[in-house]
């Protein structure tokens, strides 16, 4: 079932799934607002519990997946999502890199469970928090924490056109240069992560004369050693760079 009226072209079936995450990336989709009204003529939102309790069975043309895999149940469910989906795209730092919850990957999860929960035996978790790509094939990724809503819109429109997303892989520095921002490393001596961070935020923080915090993760060709050396030249020690 496509949800299209008789005589109308078939609408693209979209599903949005959540795993371990804060819902911020899903909210960015809802923040499209007017664009969603336009898209509703071309897409059918078949599954998106943040949007509506109405849910339709697969298969789906496009699935946007937020969140990391942290439980055995999650690991099974993402395999089911992949089986039902033609094109699967992960959205946000949790889905693309494991998220802030991946800090537990270097800790004793069993010890944490004993310290936090009165009945830790009831809690079923995997020893690590991992990105979606560690469990199933991913067709593309939208980075960010949260994602840029304009990038989400671009991906959906590209899906309607039957083409792959053309998301940036270069660093934030290029966005700064294009927008004429003064480099906060050179001018203010701030420990900006822009040189090693993937573009996509619109150079938001440097545009406000603040240093980049690397919300979009590493760019495709980073040079962290050179950046660390520059931070050292600025008088920043290892503790300052953490």
Instruction: State the shape.
Output: flat
Number of domains: 2
Helix content: 25-40%
Structural class: alpha/beta
Read across the widest sheet, the strand sequence of neighbours is: 2-1-3-4-5
CATH fourth-tier homologous superfamily of the largest domain: NADH:ubiquinone oxidoreductase-like, 20kDa subunit
The profile of the biggest β sheet is: 5 strands, parallel
Termini, distance in Å? Answer: 51 Å
CATH topology descriptor of the largest domain: Rossmann fold
Q: Percent of residues in beta strands?
A: 5-15%
Q: Which blocks of ≥5 consecutive residues have pLDDT under 50?
A: none
Please compute the radius of gyration using only Cα atoms.
20 Å
Query: Could you tell me the number of beta strands?
Result: 5
Q: Based on the coordinates given, report the CATH architecture of the largest domain.
A: 3-Layer(aba) Sandwich
How many DSSP helices? 11
Q: Average pLDDT across residues?
A: 90
- The topology string of helices and strands comes to EHHEEHEHHEHHHHHH
The CATH class designation of the largest domain is Alpha Beta
Description:
34% of the residues lie in helices and 12% in strands. The protein has 242 residues and is of the alpha/beta class. It folds into two domains: 12-161, NADH:ubiquinone oxidoreductase-like, 20kDa subunit (Rossmann fold, 3-Layer(aba) Sandwich); 172-236, no CATH class. A five-stranded parallel sheet has the order 2-1-3-4-5. The longest helix is centred in the N-terminal third of the chain and has 13 residues, at 72-84. The relative contact order is 0.12. The mean pLDDT is 90.
